Every structure is written in structure tokens, then in C-alpha cells.
What does this fold into?
Amino acid sequence: QVQLVESGGGFVQPGGSLRLSCSASGSIFSANRMDWHRQAPGKQREWVASISPSGIPVYADSVKGRFTISRDNALHTMYLEMKSLRPEDTGVYYCNDYSMGSWGQGTQVTVSS
It folds into this structure.
């Protein structure tokens, strides 16, 4: 059974930074594509970024140049470095093992002055 646990969310002012982590267990992490998604209040969940097993990243246009997705296969952990945060980045951020179809419980990110 795949388990994903997100951490690192919090409250930050516009222009600030946060680093999210997703710790995985119960899967062959190094072989799986991993994604970050987010859901703002009253909106549908949206895809943010993906990283291939070999570490190739792909980003949504809304976060390109500000967010960096990475992974450490030895630690079974994925990261999302978020810089120049905007109020519209507010939401619950979810880790997704795309290959296994598994989701974490989410971590709240709030960007506000």
C-alpha cells in the first residue's frame, strides 16, 4: 500500500518562499512519475508540476520560473520549492504518485499580507 505524506506548508507573505516535501513508502518510488497538485478554496484541483523517474520536470504555466520540483530517490522524497509566492498560490497542495494513482492528505499553503 502506497503512503504519501506531505509537509512544509504554512502561512507566508506575498513574495515569500516555502519548501514542500512528500515522503513516500510502499512503492518503488524511484520508478514512478510523481506530481504536485493544488486546490484553492472553491476551485477544482489543478496540476502544478511533474517529475519523471529520471528527474525531468514539467510545470504548469502559472508556476513556471517560480517553482522547482525535485526528488531524492534514495530518500523516497519529492520536493516543491516555491518562490515569489502570490495570493493566488493559496490552497491545499497534494502529492500524487501518478504511476500508482495514490494521493497524500495535503498540506495547506496560505499566501497573504
The chain has no helices and eleven strands. The chain has a mean pLDDT of 96. The longest strand covers residues 18-25. Residues 8 and 20 are 4 Å apart (CA to CA).
